[in-house]
Design a protein that fits this description.
30% of the residues lie in helices and 34% in strands. A hairpin with a 2-residue loop joins β17 and β18. α2 runs antiparallel to α3. The protein folds into 5 domains: 43 residues; 84 residues, conserved putative lor/sdh protein from methanococcus maripaludis s2 fold; 90 residues, Beta Barrel (Elongation Factor Tu (Ef-tu), domain 3), CATH 2.40.30.170; 65 residues, OB fold (Dihydrolipoamide Acetyltransferase, E2P), CATH 2.40.50.100; 76 residues, Helix Hairpins (Orthogonal Bundle). The strands form 6 sheets. It has a 6-stranded antiparallel β-barrel with strand order 2-11-14-13-12-15. It has 385 residues and is α+β, with helices and mostly antiparallel strands. It contains 4 helices and 23 strands. It is rod-shaped and about 185 Å long.
Length: 385
């Protein structure tokens, strides 16, 4: 190496020294930052190095319901009907309708005329019978006069006792004919009276199937009257429910489409059970209310005493094709299913009539997101929530 080459080498060495110092400085700063990050991470983790993280268990709210004394309510549906539905027709031989005096929804009294049938022919017949009575009375009067004269002459020998007997018989026959004519007239007048279609009872006219000008016969229903305006709901109940009821128990009736309820009470229980459906009929008596329409449906809630049973929030009870059920948390904090039977539902919750003793830990909500066998962290529901 000559002197010129050595001089260039020394110059290159002098220029590379600052670069190396900068690199060493940057590397030192990076190392310090890494140490700070690692230290902060360990401080946040409690000074322990991070290890493999396990699965997080869900928190589930549970309740231990105990038992509560609640009114036993049987809920059902039924059909509204008149308690005594009176069919009204024509009692006579019929004829042409002259006038109809009432409409559906009209309140009527017993014996009130609902419609009038033409009676022109019957009236003329009655006039004829009245004239026959006058003729018979005249004959009877003449027969009596002849008998009286004959009696005065019998002592003089002009009239025999046999003539007296004959005249007496004639008088009796004419008197009898008067009575027959009077009876026939009374019968005709009664027939005329039967041409009026009258209400058999006080009540509310439900239906009218007759119009003026119509020809009606002696059969068929022309009006239907709810006796005294009393109604009822006929509801079919299971045999087991029917056995717990008695006449006089109160009931609440809610007609379809109505927001309010109507008070009623059981007035009759079916003495038989349908062998096919295993159901019987309970009849709930109701007083008149404009919301009641015979033939319509209504919801019925019958209060049948009280019972002691667990009371759960509605969110705790679920249902599927098998029926109603709840989720319980067992001693190992795992989810299990329990089938239940529910009773009445009110503002306080759902009454469980079978399946729970009240000491179980029942999942209050989020049951739809749980599976049988899941491990959970149960949290007891605070009182008053």
């Amino acid at each position: 190496m000559n002197m010129e080459a050595f001089s260039r080498f020394e110059a290159d060495q002098d220029m590379g020294a600052p670069r190396r110092r900068r690199r060493i400085l940057i590397a030192g700063i990076v190392v310090v930052l890494l140490v700070l990050v690692i230290g902060a991470t360990m401080m946040m983790r409690g000074g322990k190095p991070a290890g493999p993280k396990g699965p997080t268990l869900p928190h589930v709210t549970v309740t231990v319901p105990g038992t509560t004394t609640v009114a036993r309510v049987i809920n059902a549906t039924g059909t509204v009907a008149a308690r005594r539905d009176m069919p009204v027709g024509i009692a006579g031989e019929g004829g042409q309708v002259v006038r109809v005096l009432v409409e559906q929804g009209t309140w009527v009294k017993r014996g009130q005329v609902l419609a009038v049938i033409d009676r022109s022919v019957q009236t003329e017949q009655a006039s004829s019978l009245a004239a026959q009575i006058a003729v018979a009375q005249a004959d009877a009067k003449l027969a009596q006069a002849n008998l009286d004269r004959a009696i005065k002459l019998v002592d003089r020998g002009f009239i025999s006792r046999a003539d007296i007997d004959a005249r007496t018989a004639t008088r009796d026959q004419t008197v009898a004919r008067v009575r027959v004519a009077q009876a026939q007239l009374a019968e005709q007048r009664a027939r005329i009276g039967r041409l009026n279609i009258v209400s058999p009872t006080d009540g509310l006219v439900l239906t009218r199937s007759i119009e003026a000008g119509q020809i009606v016969g002696g059969s068929g229903t022309l009006f239907r009257v709810a006796a005294n305006g009393n109604f009822e709901v006929l509801t079919r109940l299971a045999e087991s429910d029917l056995a717990t009821l008695k006449v006089g128990l109160p009931a609440k009736v809610t007609p379809v489409g109505q927001a309010r309820t109507i008070d009623g009470q059981i007035w009759q229980l079916s003495p038989i059970i349908d062998p096919t459906s295993r159901q019987g009929v309970a009849r709930v008596a109701l007083t008149y209310d404009p919301a009641l329409r015979p033939g319509g449906f209504a919801a019925v809630a019958i209060t049948g005493g009280s019972t002691t049973a667990p009371l759960l929030p509605e969110s705790a009870v679920q249902s599927d094709a098998k029926g109603n059920y709840v989720y319980l948390i067992d001693g190992a904090d795992k989810v299990v299913r329990r089938d239940v039977k529910v009773g009445g539902v009110d503002d306080r919750g759902v009454t469980v009539t079978d399946g729970l003793t009240g000491t179980e830990r029942v999942v209050v909500s989020a049951g739809a997101f749980l599976n049988i066998g899941d491990k959970v962290i149960p949290e007891l529901l605070a009182k008053g929530r």
